[in-house]
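Whether sequence alone determines local backbone shape is best considered at the level of individual chains. The sequence in question and its structure tokens are set out directly beneath this paragraph.

===
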Amino acid sequence: MPTARPMRADARRNRETLLSVARQAFLDGDTDAHVEDIARRAGVAVGTLYRHFETREALIEEVWRSEVDDLCASADTLLDQHAPHEALRAFLLLLVDHAAVGKGMSVALESIMATDSPVFDDARTRMADALTRLLAAGHAAGTVRGDISGVTLLRALGGVCALRAADGWIDEARQIAGLLFDGLRRNATNPG
């Protein structure tokens, strides 16, 4: 199988601009943004958009995947910059912010929910893996309980997503993340 040629710099810039414009449109509530509008705002022809993304759904999926990539990469960055328990606390708050992105994109994301796309399962797996790394680092440092898995913590945070329909939800979601964090710190070396 032949190897793919590296993307030219201008093509890479166009792709990144398209993703950025689409992300902002969805976050701004323009969930019905047409590919023509996104291409125009990005300063490219609609054909350029379709060279990078075969369908509108493919564009939406890639915006979401990019958000998850950034989120999950932040776990290792936080561990490099902070004590493990502080990295975990910061990541929990980033997960709340990620839920806000999901709220802004929720209508757009519905268009790919009906497809066979693995994007949501993959996102949940990767977020749980990031939480598992943070929890393990905290446990190894003796500052976080060792009896909670990343999957369990992600499920607990899943309730935060259900709050998104309520006004002021993000403040309440941050409080809930704080409660979870406090519970993870309680009896860190002896969770009994």
Notes: The chain has two domains: 8-54, 57-185. Residues 57-185 form a domain with the Tetracycline Repressor; domain 2 fold (CATH 1.10.357.10). The chain has eight helices and no strands. The radius of gyration is 19 Å.
